[in-house]
C-alpha cells in the first residue's frame, strides 16, 4: 500500500502532490464501500479514535464520526466550551488524560490557529486537524478538490474562484494550497476588506467584481460569511454584501459556459448564494458532503496504518 509522507494531517501545506493523490485513490475505494448495501468494513476494528471539538461543529463532526464508524473504529467523543481552555497547558492536560485511556488517534477542532501542530509535537497519537481557528481545514480542502476531480475529470488546469469571506476562512487557505499543488489556477473574490493583505504571496489572482470572476472560472467555491469571527464590521450590512456578492441564477445564466458551484456549508441562503443556485444541477454541494465521508475514511485509514503497535 502507498504510504503518506506525513505522520499527522495538520495542514495541506505539509502534504506533497503524491500524498494528495494517494488520499484520493484510497477514497475511491471507500466511496464504493459507502455505496454498498452493507456500508461497514472491519479496517480499523482495533483502533480507538477521540473526536475533540473545542469549537462548535455539526457537519464536520458527523462526517468524521460516520467515517470512523464505517471502518469499525472505537470512538470517544469529547466537546468542550473554549472558556475552560484558556491556556495551552490545559489543552495538553485534557488530551493527555484522554490518551491515558489508550487512544490511537485524535481528530481535533480548536479555535486557536496552530493548535493541531502544537498537539502533534507533544502527544503520542496521530493527529488530524478538523479546523484550527482561521488557519487550515485540510479535510475540507481535500474533499473539495476530490469533488472537482469527480465532476470535471481532473483538477489540473482548471480555474477555481473562491468567493466571499477569505480573511476568516480556514477553508480558503487549505483550498489554495491543495488546488495549487494539483495544478489548478486560483482566484479569490470578495470585498477588499475580506481579502487578507498577504494573499498576493500565495500566487493567487484577486478580483473584486463577482461577475468578472465568474466569467473567468470553471468552478466557483462560495464561502459562508463568518459573522461569529468578525470582531469588527467588514462591510456595512449583510444586505449590502448580498447585493454585490450573492451568487444568483441570473448571474449563472448570463455566462457563456456552464460552471460548477460549490459551498463548504452551512449555507446562508440568500446571503452568499440563492436557493435556486444551491439546488441547481450545476451545484455539487451534496456530492461534497458524500465525498467528505470517503475522504475522511481515507485519511484516517492511511494514518492508522502508521500506528506503531509494538
Can you walk through the features of this model?
By secondary structure, this protein is of the alpha/beta class. The chain has 2 domains: 12-137 and 290-304, Rossmann fold (3-Layer(aba) Sandwich), CATH 3.40.50; 138-285, Aspartate/ornithine carbamoyltransferase (Rossmann fold), CATH 3.40.50. Helix content is 38%, strand content 15%. It contains 11 helices and 9 strands. It has a 5-stranded parallel beta sheet with strand order 7-6-5-8-9, with helices on both faces. Helix 6 links the parallel strand 5 and strand 6. The longest helix has 20 residues, at 285-304. The radius of gyration is 19 Å and the shape is globular. The protein starts with 16 loop residues before the first helix and ends in a 6-residue tail after the last helix. The model is unreliable at 228-232 (pLDDT under 50).
CATH superfamily of the largest domain: Aspartate/ornithine carbamoyltransferase
Spatial order of the strands forming the largest sheet: 7-6-5-8-9
Number of domains: 2
In which range does the helix fraction lie? 25-40%
The global form is globular
Number of helices: 11
Level-2 CATH architecture of the largest domain: 3-Layer(aba) Sandwich
Amino acid at each position: 500500500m502507498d504510504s503518506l509522507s506525513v505522520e499527522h494531517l495538520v495542514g495541506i501545506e505539509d502534504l506533497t502532490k503524491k500524498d494528495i493523490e494517494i488520499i484520493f485513490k484510497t477514497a475511491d475505494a471507500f466511496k464504493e464501500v459507502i455505496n454498498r448495501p452493507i456500508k461497514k468494513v472491519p479496517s480499523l476494528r482495533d483502533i480507538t479514535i477521540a473526536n475533540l471539538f473545542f469549537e462548535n461543529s455539526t457537519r464536520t463532526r458527523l462526517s468524521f464520526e460516520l467515517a470512523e464508524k464505517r471502518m469499525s473504529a472505537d470512538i470517544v467523543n469529547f466537546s468542550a466550551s473554549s472558556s475552560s481552555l484558556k491556556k495551552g497547558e490545559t489543552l495538553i492536560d485534557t488530551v493527555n488524560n484522554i490518551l491515558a485511556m489508550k487512544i490511537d488517534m485524535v481528530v481535533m477542532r480548536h479555535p486557536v490557529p496552530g493548535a493541531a501542530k502544537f498537539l502533534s509535537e507533544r502527544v503520542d497519537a496521530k493527529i488530524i486537524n478538523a479546523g484550527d481557528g482561521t488557519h487550515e481545514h485540510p479535510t475540507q480542502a481535500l474533499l473539495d478538490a476530490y469533488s472537482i476531480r469527480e465532476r470535471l475529470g481532473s483538477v489540473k488546469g482548471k480555474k477555481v474562484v473562491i468567493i466571499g469571506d477569505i480573511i476568516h476562512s480556514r477553508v480558503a487557505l487549505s483550498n489554495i494550497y491543495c488546488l495549487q499543488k494539483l495544478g489548478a489556477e486560483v482566484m479569490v473574490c470578495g470585498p477588499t476588506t475580506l481579502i487578507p493583505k498577504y494573499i498576493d504571496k500565495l500566487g493567487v489572482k484577486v478580483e473584486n467584481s463577482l461577475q468578472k470572476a465568474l466569467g473567468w472560472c470553471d468552478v466557483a467555491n462560495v464561502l459562508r460569511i463568518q459573522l461569529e469571527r468578525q470582531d469588527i464590521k467588514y462591510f456595512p450590512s449583510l444586505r449590502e454584501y448580498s447585493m454585490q456578492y450573492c451568487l444568483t441564477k441570473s448571474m449563472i445564466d448570463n455566462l457563456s459556459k456552464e460552471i460548477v458551484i460549490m459551498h463548504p456549508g452551512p449555507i446562508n441562503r440568500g446571503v452568499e448564494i440563492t436557493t435556486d443556485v444551491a439546488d441547481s444541477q450545476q451545484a455539487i454541494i451534496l456530492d461534497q458532503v458524500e465525498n467528505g465521508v470517503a475522504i475522511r475514511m481515507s485519511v484516517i485509514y492511511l494514518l492508522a496504518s502508521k500506528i506503531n503497535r509494538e
